[in-house]
Amino acid sequence: MFCGECGSSRTATVESRKRRDPRPNDTTIIARLPRTTVVISVPIPAEVPAPVGAVTVVTAAPTAPAAVPPALPAAVLPTRATFVLTFSTGQVVSVRGSGLIGRKPLAQPDEIFDDLIQVADTDRSVSKTHLEFGQHDDEFWVSDRVSANGTVIRRPGETAEALEPGRRYVLPRGSRVEIADHSFSVA
């Protein structure tokens, strides 16, 4: 089984010594980028009414039927703008939160996203998880997820800008995002 001169295995080959890749053809993550946390504070009135449908615990028998508590004012509830992404593949997607875009987007175990948008790319120029997007103060932002072919943004009236992986870039409506051989516009 082993060579008497050098001690190496006679039955092992170069191929048998390699470990199988759990996600073949994926981009390699060089370093895990820290996830930035944004805290948005909303002033809370002194008396916050219970939301509609909340369970009320009654310790004594009431003398009159309890009134249905009013809903929270619209100013207290967070709202999200709707953005429409129109891809060069013909795909049109409306998004209202955060998400990932790629050939086969996959969130990390500690991440939660509203949308996972799969781009049909037979040439495989788009990485499996190419781009992350989200919203902050009703503005749309994108962030490259260390993709193999990179990401370029074109804001209206400005020159093209290559994205630095892990950094968020705010895009106004009418911007175009180029992900490898494909692109999408933000409306």
From TrEMBL:
Entry keyword annotation includes Transcription regulation: no
Family matches, as InterPro entries: FHA_dom (IPR000253), SMAD_FHA_dom_sf (IPR008984)
Basic and acidic residues: bias regions: 15-24
SUPFAM superfamilies: SMAD/FHA domain
Protein name (Swiss-Prot/TrEMBL): FHA domain-containing protein
UniProt keyword annotations, A-Z: Phosphoprotein
Disordered: region residues: 6-27
Keyword hit for Cell membrane: no
Database matches in Pfam families: FHA
Domain FHA: 99-153
